[in-house]
Write a structure and sequence with these properties.
357 residues, DNA polymerase, domain 1, ten-stranded mixed β-sheet, two-stranded parallel sheet, disordered C terminus, binds iron/sulfur cluster
Length: 357
């Protein structure tokens, strides 16, 4: 009998791949559809429960495939009903994912890597560095797990943001494959326009993404309007000057016609002064973009402050008065370590301190 680690992860393959497997095993083509419908539409996580398949076939599939591979290692719910899960993979690595309920949408925030190579100084996950890439199936599994949780609360999962731990474009092939599975009508069937990938900005991969035949949203974590300050806050930014990033975003718009979102994590006393606002306006005028301002969630042990609401309002006004389209993102799950990496760290899964901007 095959041992667990030799089994393939069903969530990491497309319907086409699984149909090819069925064909090799001389199984009728409709079996692949039946299994996928069971997994994605009826929430089946275990072959033994697939009552529409014969017992020998269920056994055969269970010998070669696993539907899910993680076990829940922790779960926390905030007073605003934001729900954070820590999943433990078979190699003991852990990933955080968050379900964010709102009046009109149910959003899953999922991770793309275990740890993160970007090492933002305000973030717990960055301090531990990259441990490994998440596989496509592991990325899909986070989304599927949160979709089931959402359904158990009577709501369909409507949006996906790849904004958890990790730099998605540094795990490009796995992330794109996972997004295609999440988007597919035989998969989680979540519309491409309801899927957002957030990156610190890798110009080559931004152009590669523009050439993909998929209409997802792109968000750039800028966090500072000058190279000097940005490189202090985001060490990986040393690889890419803001000018190169602006050019990649311009090319992206030219190829796709889609505006990007500039994410700006407002750190009290660090990047919220008048010169920062004005420089940010100048940058925004060079791109087709809107700005998402995020007020920093304080992390114990890190010396960054959350700006108060009047400082935030003032910064917003500076941008709006100069014609920039800006929104302030609501802070969610403040009472459950909802900023990324904090759950992993507090349960011993990460060495550092984290907060995703
Ligand atoms: S904020 Fe995001 S990109 Fe920066 S270190 Fe943390 S997980 Fe990585």
């Amino acid at each position: 009998m095959a041992i667990e680690s030799e089994k393939k992860h069903l969530l990491g393959v497309t319907l086409e791949d699984f149909a090819a497997y069925c064909d090799e095993q001389n199984l009728p083509a409709y079996r692949a559809k039946q299994v996928f419908e069971w997994v994605y539409k009826h929430g089946g996580g275990d072959f033994s429960a697939m009552s529409n398949l014969s017992k020998p076939l269920r056994q055969q599939l269970a010998e070669h495939w696993m539907v899910t591979t993680a076990v829940p290692a922790d779960r926390r719910e905030a007073t605003d009903h934001t729900l954070k899960l820590l999943l433990r993979w078979p190699d003991e690595a852990t990933s955080e994912c968050v379900l964010i309920p709102d009046d009109r949408r149910q959003t899953a925030c999922i991770s793309s890597q275990v740890g993160c190579p970007v090492r933002c100084v305000f973030c717990a996950s960055g301090h531990g560095g990259l441990q490994r890439q998440l596989k496509a199936g592991e990325i899909v599994e986070q989304a599927l797990t949160l979709a089931r949780l959402s359904e158990s609360q009577g709501q369909r999962l409507s949006h996906i943001v790849v904004m958890g731990i990790g730099e998605p474009l540094a795990n490009y092939n796995n992330v794109i494959k996972a997004i295609r599975i999440i988007n597919a009508d035989w998969g989680l069937n979540i519309g491409a326009r309801k899927i957002t990938v957030s990156t610190v900005g890798l110009p080559k991969q931004i152009r590669q993404l523009a050439a993909e035949d998929i209409q997802i949203n792109l968000a750039i974590s800028l966090h500072a309007p000058t190279d000097e300050l940005r490189q202090e806050l985001i060490p990986w930014a040393k690889n890419t000057r803001i000018d190169e990033l602006v050019q990649a975003v311009r090319d992206y718009f030219k190829a796709t016609g889609r505006e990007v979102t500039i994410e700006y994590l407002l750190l009290g006393g660090v990047n919220d002064k008048v010169e920062h606002a004005h420089r940010l306006v100048t940058l925004c005028r060079r791109m087709r973009c809107n700005v998402n301002l995020i007020r920093y969630n304080p992390v114990p042990g890190l010396d960054f402050q959350r700006p108060d609401s009047s400082a935030t309002h003032w910064f917003v006004q500076q941008l709006r008065e100069r014609g920039v389209n800006v929104h302030v993102r609501k802070s969610r799950g403040l009472d459950i370590d909802a900023a990324c990496g904090q759950l992993r760290r507090s349960t011993g899964g990460a060495k550092g301190t984290a907060v995703r901007g």
